[in-house]
Structures are given as C-alpha cells and as structure tokens.
Amino acid sequence: MRPKELQCIITFHTTTEAMQLEQAAKTVGFGGRIIPVPREITAGCGLAWRDSIDARAALIDMMMEQKLSYDKIVELII
After folding, report:
1. CATH number for position 66
2. pTM (two decimals)
3. Which of 2, 37, 56, 67 could share a disulfide with 43, CB 3.0–4.6 Å?
C-alpha cells in the first residue's frame, strides 16, 4: 500500500474544465492525473486533478496564464 501524503487537489464545475486542465498540464509536463473527487470534498462534476503539493504554485500559474477554469484547490492527505 502506498503511504498517504499531502496532495494538491483541484476540483472542477464541469468535466470539460477537468479535461482542459489535464491536456494543458500533460503538455507542460506536470506529473499529476485526473481522479474521482475524494469523499472528503464535494465538487460539481465528480472529477479532480491530483498532483504533488510542490506543484501547486506552478499549476496555479499555468491555469492563470491559460485562463483555465476550476472550482477550488484543496490540500488533502490521500
């Protein structure tokens, strides 16, 4: 079993927003991935982006530069 660690979780209002972030993040080289929204969080579309906590600032910068929409950003141990 993988040890639990603090992660950056980004939730979305729509599936389209999730797919847009996934495509942009993979193009830039982020190592995260799309996951089902963890039970501890409520979100609109049921999908979230999970990445290391170290990537949080760079993800926010990338989303602002590319004008990508999201619901909220949460730090969660998963």
Report:
1. 3.30.70.260
2. 0.94
3. 37
